[in-house]
Amino acid sequence: MELLPTARPGSPDDYDNIVVVGGLLGQQSPLKTSDEMFLMRAAREAKPITALCTGSFILARLGLLDGYAACVSWFHIREFRSQFPGVKASADRLYEVDRDRATCSGGVGSADLAAHFVSAVLGDQAAEKASKILILDRVRTTRDAQPVSDMFSTDASIAVRRALLLMESNLQDPLEISRIAQSAGRSRRQLERLFGVELGTSPKDAYVALRIARAAELLTTSDIPISDVGYEVGFTNAGHFSRVFRQFAGISPSEHRKSSAHSSSLNLIERIRAKGRKSREAPAPTA
């Protein structure tokens, strides 16, 4: 779908909120110089600026997200961070509102962000009514998490989904499990219990599984040296990476790259679940 302008931007003073709509990365037409100048002027005058989906890439290129927290879809978070390391970007929520900047994950997240604005101006009742008109079952907030990738159950609780998203968006520099638990609003022990009940594994093993799954993807879709693949998913030692990869995938990274029957993410997580069940069912050692 293409959006065609019906008027010139005019002055930032003419708008309550300026919304930049994103599109498919690599197929976005560059902004006209006049449009860039309009956005820069709006920022100088502290006008609220909102980016939908990959619109955040446009704002970041102009430096308009420097010093702000931003929400990016889990699908684009790696690319965004590689291009704009100075922006505090996350993929563990549907949208982010930081002072006079708002960003969202895209898709239905755009409607959730719109509901936030409606609620702020017209009240919660108006926001709920607008959401029902859009056939949304409820008004979702920043406390709700984005959907996770297909490696884990989409029926997981918000806390578990948020933890998984934090893991997926921090593969090269893994976070401490206690920090992830805190960001998910749980203690480490509570998060471990939730993972065990809902996913049949521990947060630590789930994190390793996500890193190994990403490594498997890089091994099959690129010619990056194996040591660099390990580094991309948080392993600074090539030997350690190979041992962990074999533990979870059943074959070495080099064998995986050569094989035509590559292990899927589903196979990886099933291996981890089985290992977790064995460790929990193992009898306690006797004196």
Textual characterization of the structure:
The protein folds into two domains: about 10-135, 3-Layer(aba) Sandwich (Rossmann fold), CATH 3.40.50; about 150-280, Arc Repressor Mutant, subunit A (Orthogonal Bundle), CATH 1.10.10. The radius of gyration is 22 Å and the shape is globular. β3, α3 and β4 (about 90) form a beta-alpha-beta unit. The chain has 13 helices and six strands. By secondary structure, the protein is of the alpha/beta class. The model has no long low-confidence stretch (mean pLDDT about 80). α6 (about 160-170) crosses α9 (about 205-220). A four-stranded mixed sheet has the order 1-2-6-5, sandwiched between helices.
H/E element sequence: EHEHEHEEEHHHHHHHHHH
In total, the number of domains comes to 2
CATH architecture of the largest domain: Orthogonal Bundle
Beta-strand residue fraction: 5-15%
Structural class: alpha/beta
Number of helices: 13
Average pLDDT for all residues: 82
CATH superfamily annotation of the largest domain: Homeodomain-like
- In the CATH scheme, the class of the largest domain would be Mainly Alpha
* Total DSSP E strands: 6
Per the principal axes of the C-alpha atoms, what is the gross shape? globular
Q: How is the biggest beta sheet arranged?
A: 4 strands, mixed
